[in-house]
Amino acid sequence: MNHVYFNFQGNAVLGVLAFLGFGFAEFLAVVTALVLFARRKRRAARRVLIGALAAAGLYVAVLLSFSLASREQLAKRAEEKYFCEVDCHLAYSVVDVRESKSLGTGSSRAMARGLYRIASLRVRFDPETTSSHRPKDMSLTPNPRSVRVVDASGTIYRPDPAGQRALGSVEGAALPLTRALVPGESYVTRLVFDLPEKAPDPRLLITESDWITRALIGHENSPFHGKTSFRLGLSRAAARGALAAARRGRTRADGRRATAFLAAARRGRERASGGGGTSHGEHPDLATRSSDLPSPSPFALLLCPARSRRFDGSLCASREWRCRPGEPSRLFLPES
Predict the structure, then answer these.
(1) Residue 317 and residue 293: Cα distance in Å, rounded?
(2) Fewest CB atoms less than 10 Å from the CB: which of 32, 278, 281, 300?
C-alpha cells in the first residue's frame, strides 16, 4: 500500500483557526492600546502591548516547535501528496518520468542545455476528503502553486518555458495546476525541466505560493519546516530505453575504435615493410606505437598465443607493449 503525505502537519482547520484567532486578538490589542494612549492611560496601554507581544512570542514558539519536529519526506512513484484545503483535499502524484536531449519538431524544436526531464503529474480531487456540508458538484480552483526541482546540492531549477512549448507542440498544451476540479475528477499534466546531465538526486517540489501559508502552524511553508518532495528517477520503461540507446551508441563507438585500431596496425605493418625492418624489437605484424592507437576499446584484443596472455586496447594504448620477436600477433574484432 502506498504511503500518503500531507503539506500540513496536524489538522489544517485548527491551524487556520489558530492563525485567524491570533490575528484577531492582536488587532484588538493594538486598537485597545491606541485608545488607552489617546485617553492618556499609558500604563494600561503598555500592559496591553506587553500582553500582545507575549501572545505573539507564544504563537511563534508553537509554530517553530511544529517546524523543528518535522522532517523532509520523499514520495516515491505514484505515492500521493495531499494539499489540505479547509473542507477538501487535492492529491498530487508523479506517475511517469522520462528524459530527452531535445523536444518538439521542426521550427518548434528545443535543445536542452543539459537534459530535459519530463515529469507527468497527476492531480486528483479526492471525494473522500470533502466536508459533508460541501455540495458534491461544487468545483474547487486551487491556490497558485510553486513548482521547482531541487537537487542534492541545493540548486533550484524552474520549469523550462522553451521545453514546455516544444513538448506542447507535439503532445498538446499542458494543463495548468490552477485548473478547477470537482470531487472525483483528475487530470495528468506535464512539467519540463532542463537539468544538468549529472544533477545529483533531483527532486520535484510543489508547494503553495501564498505568503500567508508561511505563518500557519504546521504548514510546510512555515520557517524551518520539512517539506515533501517527489523522487524524479526514471520509470522502468524509460530507464530501459535510455540504457538500450546508450548501449547502441557505445557499440557503434566501439566499432569505430576497432576499425581505427586495425587501420593503425596496418599502417604500422606498411611502415615496417617499407623501411626494410623494424626497430626497438617491434614485431612486423604489429609495428605501431601507442601514439598511433585510437582510444581504448574493450573489443579490440591482442593475443600472443605463445605467451598465453591477452591484452585489451586500453593496455595497448597506454603502454609500449609488443609481442616478442618471432611471436605471432592477431587483432580480434567484434562480430558485426
Answers:
(1) 6
(2) 281
Helices 42-69 and 12-38 pack at an angle, to 10 degrees, of 160
Answer whether 117's CB lies under 8 Å from 232's CB: yes
The H or E element spanning position 179 is: none
Collapse the DSSP code of 186 into the 3-class scheme (helix H, G, I; strand E, B; otherwise coil) and give the result: strand
In contact, 73 and 120? CB cutoff 8 Å? no
What cell was used for 44? Answer: 494600561
| Residue 116, number of CB atoms within 10 A of its CB | 24
* Cell output for 34: 491606541
For 195, which DSSP code? E
Q: Do 86 and 213 contact (CB within 8 A), yes or no?
A: no
User: How wide is the angle at C-alpha 285 spanned by C-alphas 279 and 291, nearest 5°?
Assistant: 60
Find, among 229, 228, 190, 207, the residue nearest to 99 by Cα.
190
User: pLDDT (tens digit, 0 to 9) for every residue of the chain, 336 residues total?
Assistant: 578 899 998 888 899 999 999 999 999 999 999 999 999 999 999 999 999 999 999 999 999 999 999 999 999 998 999 998 877 789 999 999 999 999 999 999 999 999 999 999 999 999 988 888 888 888 999 989 999 999 999 999 999 999 999 999 999 999 999 999 999 999 999 999 999 998 999 999 999 999 999 999 999 999 999 999 999 987 555 556 655 655 555 555 555 655 665 566 566 656 656 654 444 444 444 434 434 444 444 433 444 433 333 444 433 333 334 444 444 444 433 333
Sign of the CA dihedral running 56, 60, 66, 72: positive
Burial (CB < 10 A; 0-12, 13-18, 19+), residue 131, is exposed
